[in-house]
Design brief:
By secondary structure, the chain is α/β, with parallel strands linked by helices. Strands 3-2-1-7-18 form a five-stranded parallel beta sheet. Strands 9-16-10-11-12 form a five-stranded parallel beta sheet. Strands 21-22-25-24-23 form a five-stranded antiparallel beta sheet, sandwiched between helices. It binds flavin-adenine dinucleotide (FAD). Pfam families: Pyr_redox_2, Pyr_redox_dim, Rhodanese.
Length: 545
């Protein structure tokens, strides 16, 4: 029988071990984990800070005893693999409980060591006791105990990726004064800047002190100082500025490292050694849209890779579809999800592309929980191939983005998306679902049925004195409008055609884009040739400005 050793006992490691057992009742399976726990829910860690997950021990999904009893998997904790001896097919393990080392042989080795939080060494105060990172149950227990035990009120979270944002949110929910400091001009780079403004607003509305375009400079006693010189109160600091793949073990063993600095694997997650697989955050994956290797630290892909590696050991063929990067987040009262490329990454990669930004209702307006959903769809021109999407709202953004992710994986186009038949009932959605709607708008745009300018271009239009028509009703206009915009409501414009110039471009917006779209189409049908819809409309403009 085979002896299979797995390094790392969480997302990738535990999944691989469990799959191997399902394939082979006789295999000897040993799973080695450096930390005190195997199989915990990394993704739920931040929720301990708010008390949504009250007991830190419940973050551990399966313990070594259960692995043994249910799966005959020997899960050893506090055992760090320090060396791979490829010539002998053994590994050297450091046992933290006895401070001794020993060797273990393997027929096949699976590495799933993950990625560790980055801790820049050049920042003053970085080694202080009140500086934390969040990767495992022990980290979150310590952070929570420190904050609660010392009755700390002011906390700085450094880094606005999804871990930083979730940690900041949960600390805020626990009643702390939280500053979130991000070097870039926005949080969560899987969202375009216009969409990220919605997330920013949500954070500020919930009392987070959001600091963008600024980096951490110094960690002092009770404060942090930013690169721009801001002094921010902080008796605790959480670093969430990214993760670094754990490649030392592989590198020391002479396994090939890819161009992104992660472990290089083939189609079947085999490293450059035919008896060693690698999966999860530590490996380099192939981006299906960008056609190049990339890094991706997400749990779903880690589990799929783990299963594929286990299957390959047993001769089961694997289909490696590459990754597109699909993720979601809950932020205070909002949900957000994204998949594939956004406009920025499409631009950087040199795609010929366009995008639409719509904000329809997520459910029928009459229903109690109907809300606006902000939805941005990015597609290739002129092919109409779907490249990515972002959705933010109170409702089921993940359903919408999952449809798009499925479309992308199947090389779907706008035509496919506009025609895909989806479920509908008033409490759950609308007859023309958000994604169908986005595809229709994009299809119109692609086919030149009407023309649009982006929300990001509006400021320049206003500054240049362009003719902007606000198609909302008078009372809506009076409660706030763009400088110099002319109010011609959709309900009146047919009687006021003389007010609409024909010798210059006319840019039309309403609240969400629905009325302006109808006015643009009507004006075109009446012979106006230079009318433009403002994508994103007033809701989007307000958020962006
Ligand atoms: P891990 O799950 O990190 O497991 C690696 C394990 O290997 C570690 O426990 C480590 O101690 C051990 N190890 C490393 N080296 C050795 C060694 N030499 N010997 C023995 N053991 C070793 N992903 C999502 O998709 N959605 C989310 O909402 C989400 N939220 C997250 C929130 C937080 C706070 C964090 C930290 C991560 C989150 N992730 C999320 C990411 C997800 O958890 C990871 O992508 C996933 O866990 C990767 O699996 P892995 O097996 O590669 O690494």
């Amino acid at each position: 029988s085979k002896k299979i050793v797995v390094v790392g006992g969480v997302a990738g490691g535990a999944s691989a071990a469990a799959r191997i057992r399902r394939l082979d009742e006789n295999a000897e399976i040993i799973m080695l984990e450096r930390g005190p726990h195997v199989s915990f829910s990394n993704c739920s860690l931040p929720y301990h800070l708010s008390g949504i997950v009250e007991d830190h021990e419940s973050l551990v999904v399966t313990n070594p005893q259960t692995f043994e009893e249910r799966y005959k998997i020997e899960a050893r904790v506090q055992q760090e693999v320090v060396k791979i001896n490829r010539d002998k097919k053994t590994i050297t393990i450091k046992d933290a409980t006895t401070d001794s080392t020993y060797e273990e042989s393997y027929d096949k080795l699976i590495l799933s060591p993950g990625a560790s939080p980055i801790r820049p060494s050049n920042i003053e105060g970085i080694d202080n006791d009140h500086v934390f990172t969040v990767r495992n149950v022990e980290d979150i227990r310590q952070l929570n105990a420190y904050v609660k035990g010392k009755n700390i009120k002011d906390i700085a979270v450094i880094g606005g990726g999804f871990i930083g944002v979730e940690v900041a949110e949960n600390l805020r929910l626990a009643g702390n004064h939280v500053s979130l400091i991000e070097f870039a001009d926005q949080v969560m780079t899987s969202y375009d800047n216009d969409m990220a403004q919605i997330l920013h607003k949500e954070m500020v509305d919930h009392g987070l002190n959001l600091v963008t375009n600024d980096g951490l400079d110094v960690i002092g006693d009770g404060f942090v100082r930013t690169q721009s010189g801001k002094k921010i109160d902080a008796q605790a600091v959480v670093l969430a500025i990214g993760v670094r793949p754990e490649t030392t073990l592989a590198e020391d063993a002479g396994l090939e490292i890819g161009e992104t600095g992660s472990i290089k694997v083939d189609h079947n997650y085999l490293t450059s050694d035919r008896d060693i697989y690698a999966v999860g955050d530590a490996i380099e994956v192939y981006h299906r849209l960008l056609h190049k290797p990339t890094r991706l630290a997400l749990a779903g892909p880690a589990q799929k890779q783990a299963r594929a590696a286990a299957d390959h050991i047993y001769g089961i063929p694997n289909r490696n579809l590459g990754i597109i990067g699909s993720s979601s987040i809950h932020l205070f009262d909002l949900n957000a999800a994204s998949t594939g490329l956004n406009a920025r990454t499409a631009e950087l990669a040199g795609f010929s592309y366009d995008s639409v930004y719509i904000m329809p209702a997520d459910k029928v307006n009459l229903m109690p929980n109907s809300n606006v959903m902000h939805f941005k769809l990015v597609y290739e021109t002129p092919t109409g191939r779907i490249l990515g999407a972002q959705a933010i709202g109170k409702g089921n953004v993940d359903k919408r983005i999952d449809v798009i992710a499925t479309m992308i994986m199947m090389n779907g186009t706008l035509e496919d998306l506009k025609d895909v038949e989806l479920t509908y009932s008033p409490m759950l959605g609308t007859a023309k679902d958000v994604v169908n709607h986005a595809a229709l708008v994009a299809w119109n745009q692609l086919n030149g049925v009407y023309r649009e300018v982006k929300v990001t271009q509006v400021r320049a239009l206003v500054e240049n004195g362009a003719c902007i028509i606000d198609a909302r009703e008078k009372n809506e206009f009076n409660s706030g409008h763009l400088k110099n915009a002319k109010n011609i409501p959709l309900s009146e414009f047919r009687d006021r055609l003389d007010d609409i110039p024909t010798d210059e471009p006319v840019y039309i917006h309403c609240r969400s884009g629905q009325r302006s779209y109808n006015m643009v189409m009507a004006l075109q049908n009446l012979g106006f040739t230079n009318v433009w819809n403002i994508s994103g409309s007033y809701l989007g403009i307000n958020l962006y400005e």
